[in-house]
Design goal:
homodimer; 345 residues; Isopropylmalate Dehydrogenase; 49% helix
């Protein structure tokens, strides 16, 4: 049995989408047991609307409060102890048999609470998000970090490259991820002092797997498997890609409906547009795994519907099976036991 | 007569695209006189290929050397004095009757040379790029800075908001540009210490015209006229938008050609796809104006063809007519004469 907690509050469609997603997952995965954190009455109502569920497969953790995106993460941890997110984090920390948690709530509060209350894998400075996007040649590309850390040191960026790379290897089976550093040009000498330093660290750590600097324009080309970035620019990269794709799909739809002849032509291309829409709809890809914490944390989009929540639960299940955290631990402790490293310290 | 210098080297299609673009501009604008900087023989060859030009309308500034993107900007200024870019900058500085310069060459070297040799408008800390992109509702949105400054102070970001805003007013006639700060979330308290500080400065300076933080995903929605950012994240924003749009157009084309029925349907939509391709083809928009230097500097894409170069020259001509630099001078000196400001100093 795998036990996961669902934070049912904090998203645009909470708690309905979160509860519905959890119930869909319970029906699909017999090994799954879920704890639903949130307002008991509201959750029970959602379960009734779904048509009920097997009560031996889930339990409700009553938490009447919600954390909003406007709240300071440190305040949320201190003051919102009765919130669905903080009660979920507390239970996750205290229960050896609970593996992970899924939330569509406030990102900053989630990262702060996971770091402070759940704890990082020994030797890691910071956890980081690594969402994965589809490339135009049918591959995927991960971006680590995409928003957990706005200010970063060169060593932290090096660690993001390591945990991101182990994630792609163990979760997606990409044996040698081609790693790039997000920068403002492809030339070696580009960027600020931080990026020049990180460039050297990545080259030393990853050898030929590090392919150099990458510009924002090349994310979807399929030339890279992992993009290393600080959380600020990584966030801009991922959201801009998603937003541009979405706006272009909207434009396409609006233009097609603007003239009868276009609408007629589009009739022959229905299956093509459907495929493209599915490819570019980031709701289909679930959420983003927070790498580097001692338990599994999956953060879904605030706008997640029930399908997206289901995908997030599937990500947590697959994370559990990938044994990623043990691999990260092993790699990081190997780095710290490096004799060359000891000499320096 | 308006005299402009064209740096004919350093782009992917140099010198052909640069010379051809300059000759097209001379034919279109009788008030224009151009100085073509670069290898004399190569430029003459391009002119001959074009079928000649009126020799009273242009002159060649012989410069045998080229600056590559791999060179450190400070080295380029010191060591590449015979390059097309540095000779152009030198002539621009020394000649009162030459108004501006267009280059498709190395961005870093251009910014450094313009800052050091041409000089900034009095009171401005740094020049900044402000490219303009088309939004999905038929408007435009500017991004300032998009790559001239990788490390910025809060005061510099405030200045970018001012020069960007004056540019949109005086060049594009947008009376009250809606200004947003590029950030990782829309909430007030988002981002690192720098962005929280800039948020306050922008609110104080622009009042109701400052509409708050913007996420990468909303650039093309038409909700904003000017996005303020440091040059690093602004560069990621602009290039990611351009790259995603380009990759999606490629996907559309590839998918249409993958099946006969799609190709058939697309026949009825030819004019629609053409319009969309033109809208999203950033080559049609010329280059990016460098705001804040004492003379006009327009930087074209490295990949510019002759049409894009022509657009860059048109931008320089329109800049000249907009009288923007005088407006910036006036605004900045007004800020410095502010009694409240004097008290602090």
């Amino acid at each position: 049995m795998i036990k996961l907690i669902m934070d049912t509050m904090g998203g645009d469609h909470s708690p309905q989408a979160n509860v519905e997603g959890a119930l869909l997952a319970l029906e699909k995965y017999p090994e799954l047991y879920m704890i639903l954190s949130g307002d008991q009455a509201a959750i029970e109502k959602c379960i009734a609307e779904h048509g009920g569920a097997d009560s031996s497969r889930y339990e409700i953790l009553h938490a009447p409060d919600v954390i909003s995106g406007e709240e300071k993460p440190t305040d949320a941890i201190r003051l919102k102890r009765e919130s669905s997110m903080m009660k979920a984090i507390k239970l996750l920390r205290e229960s050896d048999d609970i593996t992970g948690m899924i939330s569509t709530g406030a990102t900053g509060a989630l990262v702060a609470a996971a770091t402070v209350r759940i704890g990082r894998i020994r030797g890691l400075s910071r956890p980081a998000f690594c969402p994965v996007l589809p490339t135009m040649d049918g591959r995927i590309v991960g971006v680590c970090d995409s928003g957990a850390n706005v200010d970063c040191t060169p060593e932290q960026l090096l660690q993001f490259s390591i945990i991101g790379s182990l994630y792609l290897q163990n979760y997606f089976g990409i044996e040698h991820p081609r790693i790039a550093l997000l920068n403002i040009g492809t030339e070696t000498e580009k960027g600020d002092a931080l990026h020049k330093e990180v460039f050297k660290l990545l080259a030393a750590e990853h050898g030929a797997d590090f392919v150099g600097n990458m510009e924002g324009r090349d994310l979807l080309t399929g030339k890279y498997d992992l993009v290393v970035s600080d959380g600020f620019s990584g966030n801009i990269l991922v959201k801009t890609t998603e937003g541009t794709a979405l706006e272009m799909l909207k434009m396409l739809k609006r233009d097609i409906y603007s003239k009868g002849i276009y609408k007629f032509g589009a009739l022959f291309m229905k299956s093509m547009f459907k495929k493209e829409k599915d490819l570019m709809n980031y709701q289909n890809y679930g959420g983003s795994v927070l790498l580097g914490t001692e338990k599994i944390i999956v953060k879904g989009h605030g706008s997640s519907g029930s399908t997206s929540v289901l995908r997030c639960i599937e990500q947590a299940l697959k994370m559990e099976k990938s044994n990623l955290n043990a691999k990260i631990s092993e790699y990081i402790s190997g780095m710290h036991n490096d004799p060359a490293d000891k000499e320096d310290n």
